Amino acid sequence: MAEALESDLFDSKLVFVEDGDNQDTIFKQVSDRLLAAGAVKSDFYQHLSEREKSYPTGIDMSVVNPAYPNVAIPHTEGEFVNVRKVVPIRLEKPIEFANMIAPDQKLQVSFLFMILNNDPEGQANVLAQIMDFLTTSSAETLKSLFQAEDPATIYKILVAGFKK
Amino acid sequence: MTVKILAACGAGVNSSHQIKDAIEKEFKKRGYNVQADAVMVKDVNEDMMKNYDIFTPIAKTDLGFTPTIPVINAGPILYRMPAMAKPVYDKIEGVIKKENLK
């Protein structure tokens, strides 16, 4: 049985550094880990992948700061997840995502904030919290995050950053 | 009169809710009575749209039909940066005034 998940927006056990050549590989690797942790349902991967193809989630960070790598916020409907969490995933090498607000534009993405949201009406908007973090944190903080080598460092930076 | 806005995104859980919240907050500040709903793009149909004054998807969206109400792409609101959001809010306010929705 999966261990109990922590109650905050981030869980130290749900932070990953992944290596893969494309979206499907990364999504499958992470979905398997999330399923083992009890955070998602068995059909999460299928719905996550399908949704990303139809409604992409890449975010062009160059409009925030041209020095920042692009990010993505993959997610799917609440019925396929069991928790309300943000799962940070640093990618060893960038992979292609389409731009969420301009789907014809392709972006090379280096960091994912995978949103698991089984309660969209519940509390402050999760995506809003992520965007506030990305647009108001210091360049030094974000540089440390995007270059972090291990999940523990990523977790520490995000927990501190989201307490602002 | 309440201005009714329909926000839509792929999953109907994150982006559209952020747009709904941001539009309602901004237009309260601007002195308008605005009510927004957040839905999944795949659930949007012609009948649903009859209940709204303005449609605000997160990106240019092929609905399979031509909307009969004004469509304003609201994606830039997601950044929560005033410089990016203001042009979208201004466009919405322009439609409210032009269509005399207030």
Automatic annotation (TrEMBL), chain A:
Transmembrane segments: none annotated. Keywords: Sugar transport, Transport. Residues 7-161 form the PTS EIIA type-2 domain. Pfam families: PTS_EIIA_2. PANTHER family: PHOSPHOTRANSFERASE SYSTEM MANNITOL_FRUCTOSE-SPECIFIC IIA DOMAIN CONTAINING PROTEIN, PTS SYSTEM FRUCTOSE-LIKE EIIA COMPONENT-RELATED. This is PTS sugar transporter subunit IIA.
Automatic annotation (TrEMBL), chain B:
Residues 4-62 form the Phosphotransferase system EIIB component type 2/3 domain. Keywords: Transferase. Gene3D superfamilies: 3.40.50.2300. One of its GO terms (molecular function) is protein-N(PI)-phosphohistidine-sugar phosphotransferase activity. The keyword Aminoacyl-tRNA synthetase does not apply. GO terms for biological process: phosphoenolpyruvate-dependent sugar phosphotransferase system. This is PTS system galactitol-specific transporter subunit IIB. It comes from Lacticaseibacillus zeae DSM 20178 = KCTC 3804.
